[in-house]
Amino acid sequence: MEQIDRRLAKVLGESSARSNLTTSPRVAEPGSVPDRRSGLYEETPATSNPGADELQYEELDRGERGTPQVVEGLNTRLRNFALTAGGIGADNVLTISLRDALRMAQRQGREYLSAEEEYILTAINLLIEQHRWGPRLFNDTTVGISGDGDEGRFENTVDVVNTLRVTQRLPYGGDVEARWVWNAAEQLRSSVSGQYQQSSALVLDASIPLLRGAGMVAREDRIQRERDVVYAARDFEDFRREYFVSIAQDYFNLIQTVNGLQNRLLQIKSLELFVDQQQALYEAGRRTEFNVNEARNDLINARSSLASSREQYTLQIDRFKVRLGIPIERPVQVVGARIEIAEPSTTIEAATASALNYRLDLQNRRDQYADSERGVINARNNLLPDLDLSGGLRVPTDPDERVGQFSLDPDETSWDAAITLSLPLDRRIERLQLRQALVRLEQSRRSLDEFTDNVVLEARRRVREIDLARFRLELAEASVLINERRLEEQQLKADEVDTRDRLNTESALLNAKNARDQALTDLRIAILNYLEAIGQLRVSPEGTIDPLPGMEVTIEDIPIDFTALFADQISDTSVEEEMYPDDTPFEE
After folding, report:
1. 490: which residues sit within 8 A by CB, 6+ positions away?
2. CA 308 to each of CA 264, 320, 415, 504, 579: distance values in angstroms, whole numbers, following the listed order
3. Which of the four pLDDT bands, split at 50, 70 and 90, describes residue 586?
4. Does any domain span residue 263?
5. Rounded to two decimals, what is the model's pTM?
6. Does pLDDT of 9 surpass 90?
7. Helices (H), strands (E): how many in the chain?
8. Long-range CB contacts (< 8 A, 24+ apart) of 543-546?
């Protein structure tokens, strides 16, 4: 296996170098052969599916519905889930930055490992085909016993034949074979001298097609395997780029969810102050209880949304751990990232031209169309008559010697040659196969045209997405500024502002901040998608982006206070007090 792995690594390295790839897949240590456990050969494996009467369902007693105790208990359970998701209080917390995530994804990500193995399997198919075209050694040993009867008397003979042969396929059809045949025979019953005989011979045979199966068509399997490795190299590099963008997008979405949590916490703090303010104004007779309860209702809704956002983060971080190959029970905390990628100065025409020139998947489609054209040529070759040239040469030992051993006698050489013509009286199947090849060629042509159009469409769309993302970001930042000033003014004129107007401002500010964070994430992803769509995204062997000349990429890590996000230390006001205020009569 070590020798195979070395040859495999050489093929992968050469293939990656020819395609100008930044890295080649790693050849992992071969796994051990499974033990011959009894369960492996069971025709009816056991199924664990007990009936309903064998299972047990235990109801959870939360208490009487609609009571403060139920709400407080649920709030505690949800808070504990959030603490676990945020890694609060855990001992072995794994801190992951964007660089760490990208590096881990290309080191242990399941999708990445599967893509590597697909590339490796294609290279193994090439090694198998290359070996078929090289000299192949075989050794066959046959031991036989026979008997001849004559009036009830049998003469029994033991024959031992050992054939050492080497075969070689010819480059343009046919094959040659060289054999060393050693034969020993012994009469078992006879006791006279001469009962043992031994001979050997050197035999050369060749068969060469002259019409059908001759020429480049004979090398079709070798050619296709060589091309398949090139396709696999391009597919692997294309996957690395898509995988990089996908992992980066997941990370940005995590950071965006964290930002949403921070925005929600700021809103809750502001609403808590507003509720206290409305309560004080109510006690001073300047607000109605309706105004106080309206503010409290928005605060309750904000807390509910905070719980939903925490659950969203919990699900996202668990899925992210699965993608990176991290144990699901391992607590993980991500590090915030401020990423600056300059927007490209491009046009629709330039992006389209780049995509048509550099997209690796498009190059694969073009070359696969050539495979279909070659398939038609090969199918036409099958319609030709069979005209085969064959011949052989045999140099035995001296037949007069009972024990010839390995002493060949050139004087006893024999040879033969023949040419065989087989007229194509029945080629209906081959004609149908030619028709199939022509249909497949037309399908491949339409598929190539459609794929090319989609590549152009995607390149044009990615250019527009950058402008759209920047436009939304500019508007979102302006909206945040407007709503912040609006809130400041309402806070200064608290006595004059209607309660609903203030609550609407709080909601509008939160939505503006979330829209700004979303627009920023969209802009980062739009730039990466643009580079991928035009075939200019380069990923380093470490899994990070490899900047092009003139491209500035800045990644700054920003610590995140997960305790503040998940410990629920917002204020001393409990959920019970918010939901169940002291009973006071409504004002008329």
Report:
1. 497, 501, 502, 505
2. 11, 18, 88, 21, 18
3. very low
4. yes
5. 0.85
6. no
7. 12, 10
8. 543/102, 543/103, 543/105, 543/106, 543/107, 543/244, 544/99, 544/102, 544/103, 545/244, 546/22
Q: Residue 116: which of 106, 126, 103 has the closest Cα? A: 106
Measured distance CA(541)–CA(21) in Å, rounded: 10
Residues 16 and 141 in one domain: no
**Residue holding tokens 């498009």?**
362
Q: What is the DSSP letter of 539?
A: B
* 244 in the same domain as 351: yes
Q: Are strands 175-187 and 196-209 parallel, antiparallel or unpaired?
A: antiparallel
Half-sphere exposure for 114 (CA within 13 Å, toward CB): 8
Total domains in the chain come to 2
For the stretch 167-198, pLDDT in tens is 999 999 999 999 998 888 776 655 444 567 78
pLDDT at position 116, please?
92
**Going by C-beta distance under 8 Å and a sequence separation of 6 or more, which residues neighbour residue 364?**
231, 234, 235
Please answer whether residues 417 and 390 qualify as being in contact, where contact means their C-beta atoms are separated by less than 8 angstroms: yes
Q: What is the pLDDT of residues 512-532, one digit of tens each?
A: 998 998 899 899 999 999 999
Range 381-396 average pLDDT: 93
Virtual CA dihedral for 337, 338, 339, 345, nearest 10 degrees?
160
Residue 411 identity (one-letter amino acid): D
87: phi then psi, degrees, rounded to nearest 5 = 70, 25
How many CB atoms lie under 10 A from the CB of residue 295?
A: 25
Among 375, 403, 422, the domain-final residue is 422
Write down the H helix ranges in 325-359: 348-358
Nearest in space to 376 (alpha carbons), one of 439, 324, 443: 439
Domain of 415 in residue numbering reads as: 136-169+174-212+386-422
Report which of 456, 247, 241, 228 is spatially closest to residue 334, judged by C-alpha positions: 247
Confidence of residue 462 (pLDDT cuts 50, 70, 90): very high
* Residues across the chain: 588
Same domain, 350 and 261: yes
What's 32's DSSP letter?
A: P
pLDDT averaged over the chain?
86
Angle, nearest 10°, between helix axes 360-381 and 348-358? 50
Residue 190 and residue 296 share a domain? no
- 141 and 120, same domain (yes or no): no
257: tokens are 């969810």
Burial class (CB in 10 A: 0-12, 13-18, 19+), 222: middle
Does residue 357 belong to any structural domain of this protein?
Answer: yes
Q: How confident is the model at residue 587 (pLDDT cuts 50, 70, 90)?
A: very low
Query: DSSP of 459-471, one letter per residue?
Result: HHHHHHHHHHHHH
